[in-house]
Amino acid sequence: MIEGPFFVLIVVGIVGTGLMAGVFCAFSTFVMRGLATLPPAQGVAAMNAINGAAVRPAFMTVFTGSAVLSAMIAVVTFVVWPDEGKLELLLGSALYLFGAFGLTVVANVPRNDRLARLTPGAPEATVYWPAYVREWTFWNHLRGVAAATAALIYVLALT
Fold first, then answer.
1. Over the chain, what is the mean pLDDT?
2. Nearest residue to 13 via CA among 71, 55, 58, 60
3. How many whole angstroms separate alpha carbon 116 and alpha carbon 118?
4. Cα separations (Å) of 25 from 53, 55, 97, 136?
5. Tens of pLDDT along 83-100?
6. How far apart are CA 8 and CA 12, in angstroms?
7. Residue 143 and residue 27: Cα distance in Å, rounded?
8. Residue 104: closest CA among 155, 61, 54, 139
9. Keywords for this entry (predicted)?
10. What is the pLDDT of residues 134-148, one digit of tens each?
């Protein structure tokens, strides 16, 4: 049985990855669908505003904090090498680090950066908006599944 500070670290990791799964789920199930119904100029402006608001301490603490916790869980797992749950802890950490955090860096952020460079209402923005919504949402689905699975696997490591 995993106990003490390592147990607490894993529980906090479960909360963080679970919160991020919820954020990703919200975007995949209704936020992006709602934005997609707007005229392109309004959708681009709204998404740019959302992206700007996301880079604030409240969100970034949970998002990057969960990545740091996942890395710490992996490192402590290698050091402690518990009798039970080691595979689950390493898999959960990899899922969040590569599937949620990593995909954000390589798939979602570049699309956000490109969208931010466009002027809402400009022809280029109008053309890019449908592709942005489709592609961004696809990668977001994967981030959500990765974060939710990481949280679930962390829970399984404690059972």
1. 97
2. 71
3. 5
4. 18, 18, 18, 13
5. 899 999 999 999 999 999
6. 6
7. 11
8. 139
9. Membrane, Transmembrane, Transmembrane helix
10. 999 999 999 999 999
67 contact partners, CB below 8 Å, separation of at least 6: 96, 97, 100, 101
Joined tokens for residue 9? 């670290």
| Residues 85 and 110 sit within 8 Å (Cβ to Cβ) | no
Tell whether the torsion through CA atoms of 20, 21, 24 and 29 is positive or negative.
negative
- In sequence order, the 6+-apart residues with CB closer than 8 A to the CB of 150 are 17, 21, 70, 92, 93, 95, 96, 99, 100
Write down how long the chain is.
159
Residue position matching structure tokens 């990593």? 102
